[in-house]
Amino acid sequence: MIICIVLLCVLVSCSESKKQREPAAASETPIAVVSAKEEAETIVGWHTLEQKVLVGDITQEEARKKFGYYDSLLAASYPKYRMGSTKRVFPLVGYSSDDIGGKNGEGYRPGGYNWFDGNRHGGHPAQDIFVKDVNQDGIEDGTNHSIKVVSVCRGIVVSLRSGWTVGSDIRGGNYIYVYDPWQHGYYYYAHLDSILAIIGDTVAAGQQIATLGRSGKNAYPKRSPTHLHLMGLSATSTGPVPKNLYNELCESSRRNQSPHCPFQDVVDIATLSQEIVVDLKYSQEDNFVGEDLYGDLDVCYLREKPARMLVEAQRLLSEMKPGYLLVVYDCLRPRSVQRKMWNRVKGTPHQKYVADPDRISMHNYGAAVDVSIIDNEGHLLDMGSPFDFFGEISQPRFEEKLLEEGAITATHYRNRHLLRNLMEKAGFKSIGSEWWHFNAGDKKRIRQDYTVVE
Ligand SMILES: [Zn+2]
């Protein structure tokens, strides 16, 4: 009887804590193990579906079902953390956001577009990027070279079509689709000449995937200047939905032009470790504010000593648990960004989780990290609450009580201790209010050693 009551308590509090967690956890990838054979079948399935949709060889109802099926298999096969880098690059080498058609990206017109209409779709849910090719031979004026199309992100080639000939009514001409595990979506590059990847390839951000051409029903005629047609699609439960890539393209283009670190005396963790996964939550919309607050800043910068300590923590983790990786959610947070965050949360219940810019966070010194652990299959360890979940359940100071009450399980407790142990061994200090936050030593010391990064 007593056992039953205890068990009941555990079940009730677990389901309660789950309920609380749902909104923030929804974006996490489901746990599934997919074999290499299944991966190949998934990609071929996606490609076959896409080709059928293009020519209208499948009913929309059936296509929608199949899309949901293959898309969720892709998400399970390629959890984002399996992919490492979050880096995004501008898709045309030697060009920039100045070459995007229309003012401020107004060439993007999603109205009337439905992916399931295939080649007969309406709207123009894409950005066109124009190149120097006045004589329209597909060769860049001045350099006499072909124009390189590179992948915007690290991803998987899931479909392509080549061999377009004049007279064909296929509007995209030669094109390629790349699956983006980080944003769970797709990039579609059209009007290509040669395609330099095959279906199933994993391509890196910045890796050349094609040369630009003039293929496609409306791209070939003289009236059309040579351009890349780039469409971004978000995978949703009702199918792929276009998104405007304008801001993303401007950001990657700005980074191309000024690749150097804008801050003094900090290091990019990626230059010290290829293992540590960088997933800065505030440089995406996947955070508690729901906005990209970091803009251009998508690199984990830290002061050199804290950076070396983090590398040491990864070394300890690899030793204890081969194949496990640290994932960092936040590193240096310049004070200007802190102000922006503060203004967002001021007067809301979230206020207490963002340091007042006048009070200064250790993140402002580049001497604090928000971090978690990924297992050897690419899945986040379950810590009982997601990063930036605000509530008692996230606070180490209540852990013993939470465990006793069953609000967190023994596994959650163990996982948190694993993280804390190795971070502390590497010289970090944990805090009582967030399981993911670690200061690079004593606060007083940090204030003495470093200046705030504005
Ligand atoms: Zn933090």
CATH topology descriptor of the largest domain? Muramoyl-pentapeptide Carboxypeptidase, domain 2
* Binned strand content: 15-25%
CATH architecture of the largest domain: 2-Layer Sandwich
- The whole-number mean of residue pLDDT values reads 86
Structural class: alpha+beta
How many domains?
2
Order of helices and strands: HHHEEEEEEEEEHEEEHEHEHHEEH
Number of β-strand runs:
16
Provide the low-confidence segments as ranges. Answer: 1-32
Tell me the quaternary state: single chain
User: What is the CA-CA span between the terminal residues?
Assistant: 60 Å
Task: Label the overall shape.
Answer: globular
Bound molecules: zinc ion
Helix content: 25-40%
Gyration radius over CA: 24 Å
User: Which CATH class of the largest domain?
Assistant: Alpha Beta
Task: Output the number of helix runs.
Answer: 9
Note the main sheet.
Answer: 9 strands, antiparallel
